[in-house]
Structures are given as structure tokens and as C-alpha cells.
Write a structure and sequence with these properties.
This is ROK family protein. InterPro entries: ATPase_NBD, ROK. With 263 residues, the protein is an alpha/beta fold. It is 29% helix and 24% strand. It is built from 9 helices and 15 strands. A hairpin with a 3-residue loop joins β1 and β2. α1 packs parallel to α4. The longest helix is centred in the C-terminal third of the chain and has 19 residues.
Length: 263
């Protein structure tokens, strides 16, 4: 259905966006007005496990029922996403993830699952799905130089922007960091609980230093649920941002400047 000017509702100026932030610990959503402000307080539930993709679609559909009208959907997902399809879903398929469940059947079910198409069809609205750090980063970057966004949550999310343009996604989180362990294993939430806050914060700052040497970012933004736990002074080129950015960035998926090409 199009408006009188022939523009699809999902693309017209002032379109209302349902923004969903999928996390390993919680599933959150809100509705954003045409300017990107929340029209409703966000709704949230704990992420249920095990969570195959068909159940994900059902759970998200139920989650957003209280939020009312929307013209389009944006989803931030914690894994590798390409053209709305899930290439990796580490939180939902790994026995070492939050669910702690056997992974073979879930790995097969999630592999290249078209979450964008399935959720859009279920909710009968145009939908875009991208990596959650990419979405969060879109809400906080300044559009100046090379900007790195790190999300500290169940695992570590990463996104890079060059002069406001989203760089093709790289899963830094799964790259070896120290003592043959990945960034996820060293600075994720399980490591924080196991190692204690002081050691965890030291390792987060070590990770920032390592990534600074890797990509020479101009500025780094730290978001996600655990970013607020950081204490004391941070380097001048590092800023902590609100966890709400995971939702507020949803409107940016519909702008060419920070998005993959429109579906």
C-alpha cells in the first residue's frame, strides 16, 4: 500500500519505525517517530532459551504487540548478518553461550535464516535486519573520520564507520585477543562475572588499545549494557554511550548513509 504520492509507507518522510534490539540476555523494542525519538517506553523480556529462529519470530511478534502502529521494522541482531540473513548466531547456537544448549540442530536452523523476510511477513511490514553493533553505532557516531563502536554485553559487538559510512561488518569479537582466547571470551559478560570487575575493566581497556593499534580509529564509542559499569577516566578518544542506542539507531537503517543498500 502506498501513500497518495506513491511512496511506500516504509520509505515516506515521517515513517514510524518499530526498532528491536536482540540481545543474548534480553529482547527489547520501542517505536520511533519520524525524528527518531521514542514514542513509547521500551518493552523488554529476558531472552528465552533454547531459541530457534521460528521461535524468535514468534517471541518478537508477541513482544511488540503493546507498541501500536508502525510503518516499518528495524532489528539489531548479535551476529553476522548479510542482506537480512543470519550467517552466525553465537549466543543462540553455542553450548558456551547464555543458553548453554547443544548446538548442532540450532546451528543448522540459524544458518542463512532469512530473519528479515520472516519477521517482515509475520508483522506485515517492510523489515531490515543488521548486526546489533552496526545499529547501535548508527545512533551515536559523529560522522567524522574513522569511528569504532564496541558494545559490551553478553559478548563484544563491533562496528566501524568511515566518515559516517558503515564499513562491511567484521566480527572482531571472534578473533584471538589474549592467551588464545577471543575478545568475546575475555571481555564478555561471563568473563566479567568470573574474573571480577577490576580485572574485567582492565581487559576492556586492553581490548580498546589493541583495536586502536589495529585500525587507528579517530574515536571509539562504548555501548551495551555493561558499558555503564566502567569507572574512572577513559582515554580522550573513548566515550561511553547510552544502551538505548541499540533501539534509537533503528531509524538509521533506513538511511543510505549508514545502511547497507535498501532491501
Amino acid at each position: 500500500m502506498s501513500d497518495p504520492a506513491g511512496q511506500p509507507p516504509g520509505l515516506r518522510p515521517g515513517a514510524v519505525t518499530l526498532a528491536i534490539d536482540v540481545g543474548g540476555t534480553g529482547l527489547k523494542a520501542s517505536v520511533l517517530d519520524g525524528g527518531g525519538a521514542m514514542e513509547h517506553s521500551r518493552v523488554r523480556i529476558d531472552t528465552p532459551y533454547p531459541l530457534p529462529p521460528d521461535k524468535m519470530v514468534t517471541v518478537l511478534s508477541d513482544l511488540v504487540k503493546p507498541l501500536g502502529h508502525f510503518d516499518r521494522i528495524s532489528v539489531g541482531f548479535p551476529g553476522m548478518v548479510r542482506d537480512g540473513r543470519i550467517l552466525s548466531a553465537p549466543h543462540f547456537v553455542s553450548p558456551d553461550g547464555p543458553g548453554g544448549v547443544p548446538s548442532d540442530d540450532l546451528t543448522k536452523a540459524w544458518s542463512r535464516f532469512d530473519l528479515q523476510g520472516a519477521l517482515g511477513a509475520t508483522l506485515d511490514r517492510p523489515c531490515k535486519v543488521a548486526n546489533d553493533a552496526d545499529v547501535q553505532g548508527a545512533a551515536v557516531i559523529r560522522g567524522e573520520g574513522l569511528e569504532l563502536v564496541l558494545t559490551l554485553g553478553t559478548g563484544l559487538g563491533t562496528a566501524l564507520f568511515n566518515h559516517g559510512l558503515l564499513v562491511p561488518h567484521l566480527e572482531f569479537a571472534h578473533h584471538p585477543f589474549r592467551k588464545d582466547l577471543s575478545y568475546n571470551e575475555v571481555v564478555g559478560d561471563a568473563a566479567r562475572k568470573r574474573s571480577g570487575h577490576k580485572k574485567w575493566q582492565k581487559r576492556v581497556l586492553e581490548a580498546v588499545d589493541t583495536l586502536r593499534a589495529l585500525c587507528f580509529f579517530d574515536h571509539c564509542f562504548l555501548g551495551g549494557g555493561n558499558a555503564a559499569r566502567l569507572e574512572g577516566d577513559l582515554p580522550e578518544d573513548v566515550t561511553v554511550v547510552s544502551n538505548d542506542a541499540g533501539i534509537l539507531g533503528g531509524i538509521k537503517l533506513w538511511e543510505r548513509t549508514v545502511s547497507h543498500p535498501p532491501a
